[in-house]
Design a protein that fits this description.
Layout (H helix, E strand, L loop, with lengths): L11 E3 L2 E3 L1 H24 L4 E2 L1 H10 L9 E6 H14 L5 E3 L12 E4 L8 H6 L8 E11 L2 H20 L8 H14 L9 H13 L7 E5 L1 H5 L6 E2 L6 E6 L2 E6 L2 H9 L18 H16 L5 H13 L1
Parallel strand pairs: 4-7
Antiparallel strand pairs: 1-2, 3-4, 5-6, 6-7, 7-8, 8-9, 10-11
Helix pairs in contact: 1-3, 5-7
Length: 323
């Protein structure tokens, strides 16, 4: 368990942005998830890197971007698939992994290691996660290889675009029309796959997208990318050499591995002036735990048969954490 002194959790302003105690504790909880991932990766010789906003945060802020509330890492495709294989067996309680291959409700090509499925006020859980009762997690992004042959790259991205367009047109749940079933059968014939008929078609299509994203390996590539973004039209090409080594950079009160070519990567992702902070909203609602609190508040209001003000609810929440 990572040690944090109580002063760390005090609210503060960073870059003019106010960070409340709950967010500090959520950050600390995510670092506990990071350390569990690190433990498994060290044991199995798997390399991972800070990615996206967490890479930018490590380089620019030596920790979280002040207005960010999540932690992202990436793995080259081979390491990513190896992690998906070993993590379900290696993760200690209460950690879980959600991926396209082990969770039929997880429809995202990135996987996620989480601290559980529900808010948890058990004292053991709170002690482990620094009095953060929320479900926290880390997204892990696959970093895929781009074939040297431009015609193969174009063919690959067109295949991904096709499957993504079909996924966008199918109902999220069965039953499916004859037209949709015939379209699914055509894709099976085209790509030589067999969809699980007991699973949602949307989920099976997302798995096919991931399979198509992983068609090539390092032996036929000099560049890597986020394949979904490349297929979506982003000219996302990063030299493989940028990921040839990693270096540890400070991240809050631990360290995190970053790719040796982080400057090139960050310029591609965020522009040449990436070191200039700009407050902007993240790709999801900030703070992430607001939805979890609302769900708990709804449950309590049903149980008590009355509505709680925000102040009343926050007081109940604080009392529950204190035990």
């Amino acid at each position: 368990m990572v040690e944090f002194n109580e002063a760390y959790f005090k609210p503060e302003y960073r870059e003019g942005f106010y960070i409340e105690e709950k967010m500090k504790r959520a950050w600390a909880a995510q670092i506990e998830v990071l350390e569990e991932i690190r433990r498994i990766c060290v044991k199995h010789g798997i390399t991972f890197f800070a990615d996206w906003g967490s890479l930018l945060g490590a380089v620019r802020h030596k920790g979280f971007i002040p207005w960010d509330d999540d932690l992202d890492i990436g793995m080259l495709r081979g390491d990513y698939m190896r992690f998906l294989e070993v993590a379900p067996l290696e993760l200690g309680q209460p950690f879980e992994i959600k991926s396209l291959y082990n969770d039929p409700e997880h429809d995202n090509v990135k996987c996620r290691v989480i601290s559980g499925r529900h808010m948890n006020f058990d004292r053991k859980y709170l002690d482990m996660f620094h009095n953060c009762p929320y479900v926290v997690g880390i997204d892990i992004f696959p970093i895929d290889y781009i074939p040297k042959d431009a015609s193969k790259m174009n063919e690959q991205t067109k295949m991904i675009e096709l499957v993504m367009s079909v996924a966008a047109s199918v109902p999220p749940e069965p039953p499916y029309s004859d037209e949709v079933l015939e379209l699914a059968a055509k894709l099976e014939r085209t790509f030589g796959v067999s969809f699980d008929k007991n699973n949602r078609l949307f989920h099976e299509l997302k798995k096919l997208v991931d399979i198509l994203s992983a068609l090539y390996d390092e032996s036929c590539s000099k560049e890597v990318c986020s394949m979904i973004d490349l297929a979506g039209g982003w000219d996302y090409h990063v030299p493989v050499s940028c990921y040839s080594k990693s270096m540890e950079l400070p991240f809050e009160n631990v360290t995190i591995p970053v790719p040796i070519g982080y400057d090139t990567i960050l310029r591609i992702k965020y522009g040449d002036d990436y070191m200039t902070p700009r407050q902007c909203s993240s790709s999801h609602d900030y703070p992430f735990y607001a939805k979890q609190e609302k769900a708990l508040k709804d449950v309590l209001e049903r149980e008590y048969g009355r509505e709680f003000t925000d102040d009343e609810f926050q007081k109940l929440l604080a009392e529950e954490i204190k035990g």
